[in-house]
Amino acid sequence: MDQQEFCPLGYLKEHKDGVTLMILNQPQDIDVTFMKQMWAKATLKATVDGGTNVLYDSVKADRDLYIPDLISGDFDSIRPEVSEFYKSKGVEIVSTPDQDYIDFAKALRLLISKSAQVEVIVALGAFGGRMDQVFANIDVLHQAQKLTSVPVVLASHCQMCVLLKQGMKHCLQVDTGHEGDWCGLIPVGRPCLHITTTGLKWNLDNQGMEFGQLISTSNALEGNGLVTIETDNDLLWCMEVKPDAE
Ligand SMILES: Cc1ncc(C[n+]2csc(CCOP(=O)(O)OP(=O)(O)O)c2C)c(N)n1
Ligand SMILES: O=c1ccn([C@@H]2O[C@H](COP(=O)(O)O)[C@@H](O)[C@H]2O)c(=O)[nH]1
């Protein structure tokens, strides 16, 4: 089985390079302090349709310091004055009208085709709000696996999730100091028949997981800084995050 090393909270490290930041349209899920911290780390920043309103409204006092590199979407949510403001600042604005994909998915494709030096793509505002959109955002993680080897992370100030690819042993480095109390392993797309883990309070030993049978929620890190997960199918890793204090 191929092995992959990954630090799920690597994007929080102080001098992390190659972060691409995406802001989605879920204002209740976006903590402004955390957004500004991520903005400062990111080399490329994109807002997705109504996510542009979120940025605009969140940084009222110093709007000129927070100008994204790209705005995209089908533009059924961005407000006209918001669009006008960023247009006047020379931001690239790309219309993605296809109604078979959510705006997040289309924006991700644009970013992948644009940037070479990307180490991680972090999307803010993907949790909460509409349930269909939460699932759609997780579906985008599945789509991303076919498009790029760059990890795509859904993140907020207090939690994150990332899709672990099937048929691999994942070695998760969980020693950044930002790890919180809970974590989970969710077989979202289809059942997993063989999962083996180490480094968790409740480990699996060549066990299956599927909805209606077993999913691993309210799990916890054992605390030795490493979690290993072998899985025969894609599996969503979720964890609590403790960000930097302001
Ligand atoms: C089977 C199927 N169901 C539903 C749709 C509709 N649909 C899927 S993605 C999409 C675009 C959604 O765009 P986005 O702006 O991301 O979300 P919104 O806030 O407009 O719901 C639409 C209309 C479809 N094309 N196919
Ligand atoms: O409740 C929601 C609404 C939206 N999203 C995410 O944001 C983008 C852009 O949304 P628009 O409604 O087009 O402005 C959408 O593609 C979703 O990824 C969400 O997560 N929850």
TrEMBL record:
What's an example GO cellular component term for this entry?
Answer: cytosol
Top-level EC class: transferase
Provide the protein name: Thiamine pyrophosphokinase
Protein function: Catalyzes the phosphorylation of thiamine to thiamine pyrophosphate (TPP) utilizing UTP and therefore links the biosynthesis of TPP to pyrimidines metabolism. By producing thiamine pyrophosphate, a cofactor of the mitochondrial pyruvate dehydrogenase indirectly regulates pyruvate oxidation and lipogenesis. Although it can also catalyze thiamine phosphorylation using ATP and CTP in vitro, it does so with significantly lower efficiency and without physiological relevance evidence.
* Any GO BP annotation: thiamine diphosphate biosynthetic process
Give the UniProt family note.
Belongs to the thiamine pyrophosphokinase family.
The family database entries (SMART domains) matched by this protein are listed as:
TPK_B1_binding
Subunit info here reads:
Homodimer.
Signal sequence annotation: none
Pathway participation: Cofactor biosynthesis; thiamine diphosphate biosynthesis; thiamine diphosphate from thiamine: step 1/1
Q: Name one Pfam family in it.
A: TPK_catalytic
Reaction equations catalysed? thiamine + UTP = thiamine diphosphate + UMP + H(+); thiamine + ATP = thiamine diphosphate + AMP + H(+)
Domain named Thiamin pyrophosphokinase thiamin-binding: residues? 177-235
The UniProt keyword set, sorted, is: ATP-binding, Kinase, Nucleotide-binding, Transferase
Q: Name one GO molecular function term.
A: UTP thiamine diphosphokinase activity
Alphabetized CDD domains for the sequence: TPK
UniProt keyword annotation of Kinase present: yes
Its Enzyme Commission number(s) read 2.7.6.2
Which SUPFAM superfamilies does this one have?
Answer: Thiamin pyrophosphokinase, catalytic domain, Thiamin pyrophosphokinase, substrate-binding domain
Which organism does this record belong to? Mizuhopecten yessoensis (Japanese scallop)
The answer to whether keyword Plastid applies is no
